[in-house]
Write a structure and sequence with these properties.
Elements (H helix, E strand, L loop, with lengths): L8 E5 L6 H10 L3 E3 L2 E3 L3 E5 L10 H13 L3 E3 L3 H9 L17 H14 L3 H12 L4 E4 L2 E4 L5 H10 L7 H7 L5 H11 L1 E4 L6 E2 L5 E2 L1 E4 L9 H4 L17 H6 L10 E3 L15 E3 L1 E2 L6 E7 L10 E5 L10 H4 L3
Parallel strand pairs: 1-4, 4-5, 7-12, 12-13
Antiparallel strand pairs: 1-15, 2-3, 6-7, 8-11, 9-10, 14-15, 15-16
The structure holds manganese (II) ion (MN).
Manganese (II) ion binds next to loops.
Pfam families: Metallophos
InterPro entries: Ap4A_hydrolase, Calcineurin-like_PHP, Metallo-depent_PP-like
Protein name: Metallophosphoesterase
Length: 334
């Protein structure tokens, strides 16, 4: 690595969700080439925003590409809620908790991880290694003038995380604690990897396009002085009725995180955006454009700028062929 040219910048890549072939194509498009089973660029590195797994057809390939790049120093990654869920789902609960697994095997949770477990079923050793690698993934990154987290940068909680875990990674104790609502570890995991949510009024539900019913909605954290629910909603599904116009109460305001306009550029994934990538704020970029729903796999090519520029997005539309499960010989490379 010492003989390499100076680092020009980072290419941040949003939620892959098992679109491994599209990930390989996006890396090629940005000038990365595979050598010895590892994608490399002479002057740039990748930062993955988490959520490599679940839903898509080439989950093993996605994990393989990212993991090799990270292990070779060609990329970094932050924890997505899906990697975190997989860790808790596959970890037995300590005795006395009254459940068998840290994340219970309910029909809903089974459905979320189903594709991943099926695709790794004939590769149990590889899955164990993937889980061990997920444990080493930090919950957030900050360096060289940029910040990266899967869903929400909440400074007080990140300070608390760094006090407990200076490297920003979980250990087993932290993982176990994080599955108990009300604990500090739970608040950190929930906020950083799932973001802020606002409960809907009693009896109101959103029947989302992904087949799930929701009693809360996802909110963002960069509005300067939000007044209504519509000022903070950040999700594909519209709020029912005229809830967009509903004023935020003081109590609701305290639930929200806040990211100011003078803070360093921040990159997030998580939010299932649609359409042509755009910047929600001059210092915030969301790179999740629903790749696995035949949206776009999106990257932002960052070269040190403090004010982000929408011209620096790069993306590939996910082709219908990505939907077809690969043949066995397709899935491993070298
Ligand atoms: Mn995601």
């Amino acid at each position: 690595m010492t003989t390499r040219a100076r680092l020009e910048g980072y290419d941040l890549i949003g939620d892959v969700h098992g679109c491994g072939a599209t990930l390989a194509a996006l890396l090629e498009k940005m000038g990365y080439h595979q050598r010895g089973g590892v994608y490399r660029h002479p002057r740039r590195r990748v930062i993955f925003l988490g959520d490599l797994i679940d839903r898509g057809p080439r989950i093993r390939l996605a994990v393989q590409i990212a993991r090799r790049m990270v292990e070779e120093g060609e990329a970094r990654i932050v924890m997505g809620n899906h990697e975190y869920n997989a860790l808790a789902y596959c970890h037995r609960a300590p005795t006395g908790l009254g459940r068998e697994w840290l994340r219970e095997h309910t029909p809903r949770n089974n459905r979320i991880i189903k594709e991943t477990l099926e695709q790794f079923r004939d590769h149990p050793q590889e899955w164990e290694e993937a889980l061990a690698w997920f444990m080493e993934i930090p919950l957030c990154l900050e360096e060289g003038g940029l910040r990266v987290v899967h869903a929400c940068w909440d400074q007080p909680l990140i300070d608390e995380l760094r006090r407990r875990r200076p490297d920003g990674c979980m250990d087993e104790t932290f993982l176990i604690e994080s599955t108990a609502p009300g604990t500090g570890a739970f608040r950190i995991l929930d906020r950083l990897t799932r973001g802020t949510q606002m409960p809907l009024p009693l009896g109101v539900e959103i029947h989302s396009g992904d087949g799930f019913t929701r009693r809360s909605f996802r909110t963002h954290f960069w509005a300067q002085s939000p007044e209504t629910w519509g000022d903070v909603v950040f999700q594909h599904d519209n709020l029912p009725g005229d809830l967009e116009l509903r004023p935020l109460s003081d109590e609701e305001r305290t639930r929200l995180a806040h990211y100011g306009p003078d803070e360093p550029p921040l990159f997030i994934g998580h939010y299932w955006c649609e359409g042509i990538p755009a910047l929600p704020a001059p210092n915030v970029a969301c790179l999740d454009y629903s790749a696995v729903k035949f949206g776009r796999l999106v990257a932002y090519r960052w070269s040190g700028e403090r004010e982000l520029n929408a011209d620096h997005f790069v993306w590939l539309r996910v082709p219908r062929e990505e939907q077809v499960r690969p043949r066995p010989w397709e899935i491993t490379f070298e």
